[in-house]
Amino acid sequence: MSVAHEHHDDHGHGHHEELSFWRKYVFSIDHKVIGIQYIILAIVAAFVGMGLSFGVVSKTERPENHIFGSPK
């Protein structure tokens, strides 16, 4: 008894549409993309921290500087 099988070239892998930037890089579950997100977050956090520390040092050196807002 033989069973006839149809031969398909796609093997169940349909055409996948190209993902948008947001779906590919922001809402990704791929571990490589998540690692890149952590690196970018660390770099941004370092620059924000450096900027804030610059403001504190500037305020300490010259109290008349008003970097973070106007005097009240």
Folded structure, characterized:
The chain is built from 2 helices and no strands. It has 72 residues and is mainly α. The chain has a domain at 27-61. The mean pLDDT is 80.
Question: Could you give a quick summary of the protein structure above?
Answer:
51% of the residues lie in helices and 0% in strands.
Q: How far is it from the N-terminal to the C-terminal residue, by CA?
A: 93 Å
Q: Based on helices, strands and strand pairing, what is the structural class?
A: mainly alpha
* Secondary-structure element pattern, one letter each: HH
Number of strand elements: 0
Percent helix, as a range, is 40-55%
Strand residue percentage: under 5%
> In this structure, how is the largest beta sheet organized?
none
Q: How much is the radius of gyration in Å?
A: 27 Å
What form results from the Cα inertia axes? rod-shaped
In round numbers, the mean pLDDT is 80
Q: Give the count of helical stretches.
A: 2
In the predicted model, the low-confidence regions spanning at least 5 consecutive residues are none
